[in-house]
Amino acid sequence: MLVGAVFFPLLGAAISGLFGRWIGDRVAQWSTVICMVLAAVCGIGAFAQVALGGQPTTVPIVTWMEVGGLEASWALRYDTLSAVMVMMVTFISTLIHLYSVGYMSHDATPYRFFAYLSLFTFMMLMLVTADNLAQLFFGWEGVGLASYLLIGYWYEKESANVAAMKAFIVNRVGDLFFMLGVALTFFVFGSIEFSIIFAAVPDRAQDIFLGVNALELIAVLLFLGACGKSAQIGLHTWLPDAMEGPTPVSALIHAATMVTAGVFLVCRMSPVFEFAPTALALVTVVGATTAFFAATVGCVQNDIKRVIAYSTCSQLGYMFFAAGVGAYQVAMFHLFTHAFFKALLFLGAGSVIHAMSDEQDIRKMGGIWTKIPITYVVMWIGSLALAGIPFFAGYYSKDAILEAAFAAHSPVGMYAFILGLAAAFLTAFYSWRLLILTFHGAPRADAHTMEHVHESPWVMLFPLLVLAAGAIGVGYLFYPLFIGAHEQAFWQGSVFTGPDNHILHDMHEVPGWVPIAPAAIGLAGIALAYVMYMIAPELPGRLASRFRGLYLFLLNKWYFDELYDALFVRPARRLAEVFWKVGDARIIDGMPNGAADLAVQASRGAVRMQTGRVANYAFAMIIGLVIFVSLFLIGFVR
Known about the structure:
By secondary structure, this protein is mainly alpha-helical. Helices cover 74% and strands 4% of the residues. It has 28 helices and four strands. It is globular, with a radius of gyration of 31 Å. It starts with a helix and ends with a helix.
């Protein structure tokens, strides 16, 4: 069961990828779906055994590498933290696979898509069950590769190729820091095995490396690596462009895999981070800033998938600043609840796109809620959960994050609390802006598109209904386990909090207005969106004209892409052009080619002397003789 949860997706990927052309698309699709169902059953069983039954274990597979003092085994580490992730990843991925059967039914190579999708799931499972940093890095790079393949799945589109390359390159920047963190961890601890590292952390708390506390530096490097995978501000630019992939890919990336890897890494390495207060402060500030930044950008986006993508970026910021104030359990709780309503929102958006003949611009929608009522209802449910409205899933987890930030009683905690409240207001606003522009008002699509608006098939609707149930109930059901009365028995030490960390206790004793504030602010954001897009629909245009500079600033995503283009892309291209024209063409090609050309010209000159006439040869010999005699006489005279 513990092994099956991880390796059934790999089996599905192998069947579809290696034999898809011979067994046919339908067999390949359903083979991967069945393998994912088996993985989900095993994942739920593993959660029941490990997390609920209190039986953490490690399943050894094989010794992976043994070089000098570096030894890394390939094993499946099952503690509560891993079991939560395995259950969530397998369950959400199974629903996305099932949904994809309908969504990709008209694609030319669905067997290839399902192979990539299952491979993506397997790599994420390898990451979350890793027993050491080498195996975690294998899964880490694996999800990066799979995301590259899936984002650029429609490789005939230039924009998809560019987006895939962008995601791959930006993540390599973060991965460089991650690798440095792994190397420094081995240097300090002499091992990359989690059990050895975690046991030795207190003894290494005062170690210095290059004049800096070694644990602080390790934590900062690992967090910078996490910023790449989890799209935190600065390394976030790949995330909105990843929408070029098919919608199920967006759902899997944003809900269950890849972007959650960074949050998982910080929580997995909590024994190190607890001894690195400066690194935790950095995590808090970056997370809170990202939550606010992404929420502001989401308010003006017009692509339905990009709006939801920026909401993911913002919610990841919430998770990080929860971990930054020491509430790792709360961060994992929000990661867990977020998976359900974010997958619901993306798959719901896919259902809208399917109904609107592949249209994604919400300005060209409207007036369709009566034609796709099930999609409309589940999108409402997902938006209510995202906005943190009582008593949906997001209400329990996001409010807990804000309470933890307030209870931290520190400047960075208050910074996170204030920006978190602002992001909560903006999240509710752009969620209802999306709902209103997509489903309400007069139809803005052309008549031909409106005639073909239809509800999705049941193979797509069933996953939506299951996810909707999760978006309603998982917060209430799992609250006592994750951060409530049974928290310690549930986590069993898989997430470490130091003896001075009382955040889970303190967050339940904040002033009474703190738990109320997020829901009240969320309702205010909904009210503002209703006024601006239902009562006074001309108001957004007037505001955009009056505050055009601010509008363009947000529409252009704070100009991060333009800044990076000026700082990195253009100089790199100019440098590459110099290397090409000077280094390659003139020096590398020029010198040997020039010598060869000189030899050719000399040989051509020599060939011209070979006329075949005896008189010419005799004349040349006489001239040579004259020159020789002249040189001899000159030398003799001297």
